[in-house]
Amino acid sequence: MKLNFKRLLSNIKKPFSLKYRNPLEIPIPQTLEEALKNHKYLMKYLESLDQKPQYFPKLDLAKNLGSNVSVLYPVGQGIFIHIDLSNRKYIIVEPPKPKRKLLEVIETAMARILAEEDIELDGSKKVQVVLRYFDKALKRSKLKLDKYRKQDLLYYFLREKIGHGFLDPFLLDEWLEDISIPGAGPVFVYHRIYGYLESSITISKDEVDRLLRSIAERYGKVLSYANPIIDIHLPDGSRFNIVFGEDISLHGSNFTIRKFSKEPLSVGHLVKWNTFNATMAAYMWMLIEAGLSFFVCGETASGKTTTLNALLAFIPPFSKIVSIEETPEVRLPHKNWVREVTRMHTGSPVTMFDLVKAALRQRPDYIVIGEIRGEEGRIAFQAIETGHPVVSTMHAGTLGQLFQRITSDPINVPKSHIDGLNLAIFQARIERGGKFIRRVTSVNEIIGYNSSSGKLMFLPSFTYDPDVDKLSFAGTSYLLETKVLPFRGWSKDKLPDLYDELNKRAEIIKWHANNAPSYFDVWKTIIEVDRVGVDEVYKRITGGLKPWRE
Predict the structure, then answer these.
(1) Residue 236 main-chain phi, psi, to 5 deg
(2) Deepest of 1, 29, 224, 533, by most Cβ within 10 A of its Cβ?
(3) pTM of the entire structure?
(4) DSSP letter string, 392-424
(5) What CATH class is the domain 164-262?
(6) 424: Cβ–Cβ under 8 A, 6 or more apart, which residues?
(7) What is the pLDDT along the chain (550 residues), one digit of tens a residue?
């Protein structure tokens, strides 16, 4: 759809109706006309463009936006993102920035007012305090501003004094996975649909250092030339890694933020986006219920943790789970969830190895390890052999690489013990049609190690065909027949019932992909299946009802 910009402008009867004072509460405009009415700077920006972008109130990975479609979308607080694909640019459209001296004048006035009122700008009510006294600070500063300049000043005051400075627009964008700066210069992002892009924000060395010191101090970290590398966990769960100083980062201090969605992506989302299909989701549901161990494998940025998080919802609702990570990325809806992280920088070090070893004494139904890299992998296999299912991620692109990593230093699991791991899922990031997509490329059932041939025995239950972009089921499953069937106490003559149930579960997942992909909607269905069984839930969706009871 081509944007008729002139006609759109002519339809705006009442220009720039500014209704909202608090930038944090500005709603998402559902149409471009609505956006232009309330955001003067957006109109000015669009008028400067020869090629107008297409407006989307919400992006959808399932839609084919095309490799040449220039898009504009809101992220909240009156901020808009323009993806200029012709130049591979990520352009932030926000209120015009006031001079720093202006902000400093207001900050001084605000500080005096708060001192007089004996109020500290601290805690969870900082925004409310600023909003209450902002007009008073403006009057005391004797600044004569129209309502738009006041709104712009409030936006930047909140951003600089309470938010994360120039990082706030990036942090608001749920479509970003990675935000980084290699030193002075432009900020780069990794967009979930469009891959790596160069942003419109360019920062000097001094600005980077000032921001990083400020953020470190706010989170109680010491950042200095003596302590130049720190990790911070932001309130939204994002991981903020800082490398400080030109002596170790020659282009200037650098940082990388790994962003995570506020709500985990569900199997409904991943099926909708074709990362894997509903049959594979149903298959994993049945295996996880039976307590099988599996690893999600792939190269960097292939989406391993996202897939792991989605699949972990299939662990039976009342199971006891212990998760062990270096950085907390796993998120579960289960109530009986023990969440543990390593400690490396303060006090006595507590490693992944220590925590996995301790988990064996906690009688968990499942042990979740964020990523296996070292000797903790050996303890993980010992846990499997003692009856504790283990799930994790590993960097490995093929089953051969996975086998080599597990049986070599520093993990060193004996080759004859490899069959403790029941399943290996492989996922990859693929460029297709100008977009980066994630796809499960194979699901492999591990049979064991053949010592006479020196080869790993396995059966691929799902394989990916890149020509048609499709994941296909082999039709039968060794694990379903040899693990799930006996786990349920079923005899071989119930095999048709097992595969019939697989298909019913797949239909339930498809219903979610098409109607309610939310993680917590999927979780409600999993609880309902645990309570009343698959057949009852299947009857509900085929009867036009929701799978769970309200």
Answers:
(1) -85, 5
(2) 29
(3) 0.80
(4) EEEE-SSHHHHHHHHHSTTT---GGGGGGS-EE
(5) alpha beta
(6) 294, 295, 297, 399, 402, 443, 444, 446, 458
(7) 445 555 655 555 444 444 446 777 788 899 999 999 888 899 999 999 988 899 999 887 766 555 566 899 999 988 999 999 888 999 999 998 888 888 888 888 888 888 888 777 666 677 788 888 888 888 888 777 666 677 888 888 888 888 888 999 999 999 998 999 998 899 999 998 888 899 999 999 998 998 899 889 888 888 888 889 888 888 877 889 999 988 888 888 999 998 877 778 899 999 999 999 999 999 999 999 999 999 999 998 899 999 999 999 999 999 999 999 987 888 899 999 999 988 765 667 888 999 999 999 999 999 999 999 999 999 999 999 999 999 999 999 999 999 999 999 999 999 999 999 999 999 999 888 767 789 999 999 999 999 888 899 999 999 999 999 999 999 999 999 999 999 999 999 999 999 999 999 999 999 999 999 999 999 999 999 999 999 999 999 999 999 998 7
**Strands of 254-258's sheet, edge to edge?**
54-55, 71-76, 79-84, 89-93, 195-203, 185-191, 176-181, 254-258, 239-243, 229-233
Three-state DSSP state, 232: strand
Token pair 């609880």 in the structure block, residue: 527
**Top-level CATH class of 267-542?**
alpha beta
Angstrom distance (rounded) from CA 447 to CA 420: 9
Which residues is 91 bridged to in the sheet? 82
- Helices 278-289 and 495-515 pack at an angle, to 10 degrees, of 120
Kindly state the tokens that stand for 122.
């601290």
Total residue count of the chain as it appears in this document:
550
Residue 363's CB: how many other CB atoms inside 10 A?
A: 9
Which sequence spans correspond to the domains of the chain? 100-162, 164-262, 267-542
